[in-house]
Amino acid sequence: MASKLPKASEKFIEALNAALSEEMASAIQYLWDHILARGLQSPSIADMFKELSMVEMKHGYTLAERIDLLGGVPTTAIGPIKIGGDLQKMLQDNLNAEYDAIEMYRGLVKTAEQANDVVTRRLLEDILKETEEHARDLQSVLGK
Ligand SMILES: [Fe+2]
Ligand SMILES: [Fe+2]
Fold first, then answer.
1. Could you give the angle at the alpha carbon of 125 between the alpha carbons of 9 and 21, nearest 5°?
2. How far is ligand 2, taken at its centre, from the CA of residue 3, in Å?
3. What domains sit in the chain, N to C, each tagged with a CATH number?
4. Torsion of the alpha carbons at 68, 8, 77 and 18, rounded to the nearest 10
5. What is the Å distance from ligand 1's center to 98 Cα?
6. What is the Å distance from ligand 2's center to 98 Cα?
7. Whether this model's pTM surpasses 0.85
8. Residues having C-beta closer than 5 Å to ion ligand 1
């Protein structure tokens, strides 16, 4: 009997892999900013970076598991990473990354919808929700 599992197009796998690269970059960026911020007398922001790093890792493995189920190969490539500077700069660099991620996931949700892949769409929507929350948290620390 033919498999009933969904199979994604190469183009969609590629787009999901691009998201996976970004998530892994984000996990590392937050982790290093966590380490650097520990020396900058702001334990609460240092802790926040650590928590965010763990959520980005979760986004990463959620995508990797889904790519695998859809018949693709999860990438080991990691996107560009921007770390360091003062706290303000770290917060702003991470906020910019979250804004980029929001745009990316809005596009991916549409692609999943067009592919009639309701499960991937829901996973992407969950990640998008948390990404919007990260942007909101960073905005409020920055006083925006
Ligand atoms: Fe993320
Ligand atoms: Fe995030």
1. 60
2. 34
3. 10-141 (1.20.1260.10)
4. -130
5. 8
6. 5
7. yes
8. 23, 56, 59
Under 8 Å between Cβ of 70 and 9: no
Contact 87, 42 (CB under 8 A): yes
To which residue do tokens 């959520």 refer? 55
In this predicted structure, the answer to whether residue 1 has a pLDDT above a threshold of 90 is no
Q: How many residues does the chain have?
A: 144
Give the 3-state DSSP-derived string for 43-75, with helices as H, strands as E and coil as C.
HHHHHHHHHHHHHHHHHHHHHHHHHHHCCCCCC
Place of tokens 């889904």: 66
User: Could you report the per-residue pLDDT of 52-105, keeping only the tens digit for each?
Assistant: 999 999 999 999 999 999 999 999 999 999 998 999 999 999 999 999 999 999
